[in-house]
Amino acid sequence: MAEKIVIIGSGPAGHTAAIYAARANLNPVMFEGFMAGGVAAGGQLTTTTEVENFPGFPEGIDGTKLTQLFRDQSKNYGTKIFTQTVTKVDFSKRPFKIYCDDEMTEAEAVIIATGATAKRMNIKGEHDFWQRGISACAVCDGALPIFRNKELAVIGGGDSAVEEASHLTKFGSKVYLIHRRDKLRASQIMQKRAIENPKIEILWNSEVSEAKGGAGGLQTISINSTVDNSMRELAIGGLFYAIGHKPNTDIFQDWLKLDETGYIITKPGTTQTSIEGVYAAGDVQDKIYRQAITAAGSGCMAALEAERWLEGLE
Ligand code: FAD
Ligand code: NDP
Predict the structure, then answer these.
(1) What is residue 89's predicted lDDT score, i.e. its pLDDT?
(2) Using CA atoms, how far apart are residues 41 and 11, in angstroms rounded to an integer?
(3) pLDDT exceeds cutoff 90 at 50
(4) Are 137 and 245 in contact (CB under 8 A)?
(5) Quick check: 72 pLDDT over 80?
(6) With a 6 A CB cut-off, is 158 part of the ligand 2 pocket?
(7) pLDDT above 90 coverage of the chain, percent
(8) Backbone phi and psi for residue 93, each to the nearest 5 degrees, phi listed first
(9) Are 166 and 192 contacting, i.e. CB atoms less than 8 angstroms apart?
């Protein structure tokens, strides 16, 4: 028999949808993923330390701890959670088919909350030094012994880049924040944090083109100036990417309308995708706000919209 509702993904959007669907007696099934898109079940918040802007935690809360609380709440209200990655879907007709390799589950309604994955630069030498000096997650890897007391660099100019650079100052002797423009994209409070941190030096109008090193790992990077095309070599012990994310939508591209950058298109003001009965919530459909609380809010919307739609079917 088909499940009433299947939720794919397990960040704040997926778990909020699950809590609402469970409390509406829809017996939701969640596929939380197994390192799907390189991120642990629980989503992007598992890659950060303090979350200071999610209401209800006046002193802030550790990202992984927050995702564990989301999961506990989903389970406590009756969500069945499977630690599996959805590898294929068939939305050609209802019930919709959801595959985890050869295992198939049918569902009357689907909520997609697969979030997004950190982008890579694909510079020369990246492959050779990936996880040997180059990483896309300072919070996950920054405390490793190879980075201790070394000069480190973060690429990017958004909130993630500033947060990661600040985090790395706990371990490195100095952190370069390398940004391709002359203005950070990060929020004002985060910009202030970077500019005022004596261990952070911002390299403006700079692009990294190559990573070099030896048997011991990464040693130098080549930096081009976007202003005068000059080039310099910078000796560093670690390079961290914080250049944004790609929405996890590859398995949906044959079925749903996506925008030019791969985000799922939803009907404005709703979570309705281009197929009736399929909803999308969180970062997978939001390239503007991309916050835990907005992801959670749209997860709530998706569950309420799915619930009403299922009622209509009956
Ligand atoms: P995600 O959190 O991306 O979770 C999606 C989940 O779905 C992942 O676990 C993934 O593994 C799983 N998945 C993907 N594909 C599949 C599949 N095929 N099958 C099954 N499962 C799948 N926001 C804030 O509000 N405050 C902060 O302080 C903050 N700090 C951040 C720090 C960092 C380093 C980063 C990267 C982001 C931060 N954000 C913060 C943004 C916030 O984490 C995201 O907006 C939010 O997690 C998005 O939630 P989501 O539910 O849409 O997806
Ligand atoms: P963003 O998309 O906001 O920023 C990406 C940054 O990387 C931009 O500065 C961009 O440059 C730069 N960049 C992109 N591609 C390249 C490239 N190929 N080479 C060099 N630089 C590149 O992503 P974030 O991950 O920083 O943030 C995502 C969302 O998560 C945001 O909404 C943010 O607010 C949220 N977040 C919130 C936090 C908080 O509230 N504490 C912490 C972390 C994230 P350019 O500016 O030139 O486009």
Answers:
(1) 98
(2) 7
(3) no
(4) no
(5) yes
(6) yes
(7) 86
(8) -155, 165
(9) no
Task: Tell me if 47 sits within 8 A of 152, measured CB to CB.
Answer: no
CA 251 vs CA 70, 111, 264: distances in Å: 25, 14, 11
Do residues 31 and 146 touch, judged by C-beta distance below 8 A? no
Residue closest via CA to ligand 2's atom 43 equals 160
- Residue 30, pLDDT > 80, answer yes
CA 231 to ligand 1 centroid distance, Å:
36
Report the predicted TM-score, pTM, of the whole model to 2 decimal places. Answer: 0.82
Whether residue 179 contacts residue 203, with contact meaning beta carbons closer than 8 Å, is answered with yes
To the question of domain 120-241 being in CATH 3.50.50.60, the answer is yes
Ligand 2 centroid from CA 155, angstroms: 10
Pocket test for ligand 1, best of 35, 45, 245 (most atoms within 8 A of CB): 45
Backbone angles phi, psi at 63, to 5 degrees: -60, -45
Among residues 62, 90, 140, 300, the one annotated as catalytic is 140
Report pLDDT digits (tens) over 258-303.
999 899 999 999 999 999 999 999 999 998 888 999 999 999 999 9
Hey, CA dihedral for 296, 14, 69, 288, is it positive or negative? negative
What is the best residue among 243, 261, 283 to mutate for testing ligand 2's pocket, by most ligand atoms within 8 Å of CB? 243
CATH architecture observed for domain 3-117+245-313: 3-Layer(bba) Sandwich (3.50)
Same topology for domains 3-117+245-313 and 120-241, yes or no?
A: yes
